[in-house]
Every structure is written in C-alpha cells, then in structure tokens.
Amino acid sequence: MALLPPDPVYTIRNVDNSPVYSLAFSFLPGGLERLLAGSKNGYVYAYNLQTNRVQQKIKVGQAPILHLIHTNDQLITQEKGGKFKIFNLTNSGYKEETLIDLDYPGFCRFEANTKLETLYVPDRESSITIYNFSGEKTGSLTPVNTSPKLGDPMCMKYVELTSEKPCLIVGYEAGWLLLWDLNTSQCISKLQTKECPMSVDFHVEQQRGIIGNASNMVQIFSIGRKDLSLAHKMDVAIKNPGINKVQSRMDGKVFVSGGWDGHIRIFSWFSLRPLVVLTEHRQAIQDVVYSTEKVSLWNAHIMAAGGLDGAITLWDLYNNKQ
Asked: Where does the record place its WD repeats (predicted)?
C-alpha cells in the first residue's frame, strides 16, 4: 500500500457546496463530455469536463437526488421519497417526459436496461416494480413464501450473465441477496450475507461480485457459471466500518469502495488486497463512478467520487495508457 495517497487530477466544489448524492458521466455526440452531480438541494449540476466548470443547472425537485443515469438522449433521476423522472434532451435543455411516483421512503437506487428502455424500481414489501421509459408498469419481482421476511430492497445490480440470461441481483434489508431471472421474473438463487447490504456490484468476466454494508468487511461473492448459484467467497477487512458504494471498473482489474469515513479504497481484483486509500474527502462518500469512455483532457478513464462535504474528486489511477 502506498505510504502517501496520491492527489486527484481535479477537485470540483459543487454549486453552493451542496452535498453530492449521485454522479454520472455523460458522453454526448459532438464530443461533449460532462459529469452530472445529483445534489441534496434537488438540482443536477452538469460539469463540462473540458473546463471542469458548471455548464448547466437542472432543477429536478425539492428532495436530494439519490441516483441518476444519462443515456444518449435522456436523463433519469431518482429523488428521495420515491419520485423517478425521465427527461428528454432537447436543443434547449432537458424536458420532463415521465414521472413515476411511488411514495417510496427508502434509499435503494433504481437499475435500468437502457437498450430495452426498462427501469427496475424499488418498492415496498420487498418488491421491485418494472416500468418502461413511458412510465407504464410492465411487471414486478415479488418474493413468495419467504420466511424469514426479506425486508425492503437496499441495492440492485443489472447483469447479463449470457446474451439470453438477463438477471437482477437484489440485496434486501434482512441481509439476503437474491438473483432474479428477468425472463421469467423468478428467483433462481439466494445467499444469506452477514449484514444489510448497502451496495452491490458484479463483474461478469470475473464471475465475482462485491457487497458493501455497515460493517468493516467488503464481502466477495460468486455466481456459478452453470447453475447460477450465489456463493460467499471471502471477506476483505477495512479499517473503519460503513460503505455506501462499491463499484468495479469495467476492465475487471480493480474495484472501489466509498466509505462513511470519507475514504475511497481501491482494491485489486487479482489479489483482493487494498492498493491505496484516498483520504481527500472530509465526510461520507455517497457515490463513486468510472467513466465508460476516456476523458479527453486526461486521455484516461476517470474515476469520480462525491460526498456529503460537497466535493467531487476526479482520479486517474491504475490506468495503463500504453
């Protein structure tokens, strides 16, 4: 582990120093590269990654923006309290087209299949409700005959284990992890974890996933290639308890956790050991994301982290640029 943590390539102070709850990179036609920050004050701020200055302020609502994603022409947001909105990108800005209002009090973030324009939305009584991008309900994932109770959904991850097997990994309040077959809306595997999962991610090529929770352990799990069974593999200890977000980089070389202590920890997928602990933030990390394309200013895939201190840090770490 490095004796001294490296510095970010840039630190953005969010508008009005508003705490950052969610982040998403956006690469639009014409070379426009932006980072979107969902904030406590109900705004999404779009930062131009050429200048690292705010380019657009999007008023979504009054509540914190818990999650957001951006497609080529749409912005999808989730507000605390259960409002899910879809905005179309127009020549004059963003226009709200769809509102899904569930009166959902939890913090579980939605998932999406953008190719099929499908949203997987957390709901009450252990359910996941499925909508299309027009706001029409098309199905649900509802556990049956569950004992003990699962509790509310806490985290989700959409995965395509094969081209014909789209699945949803869902972590529940009581500590259970369920694997849902989205073709049949049936649960095909279960795993009892040690804590209430707060965040989950899975790397298909690694065939391994990561769970962040309130403990001082990052849990590693696998999905069997043939029987699709969930299995606990090992625990990786961290110094301080509490993880709000885990994320695997697309190349499967590293994964990251964002902690309640404000620390960002990067781990090797090969050794499952921590490579570095980044201590730039002063309050809890709420989101960590990797860019899906190289950011031209640094010619690298950039990691962005945001937290309750109102800071957004940009990092270029463990990238092979050869």
From this structure: 278-322
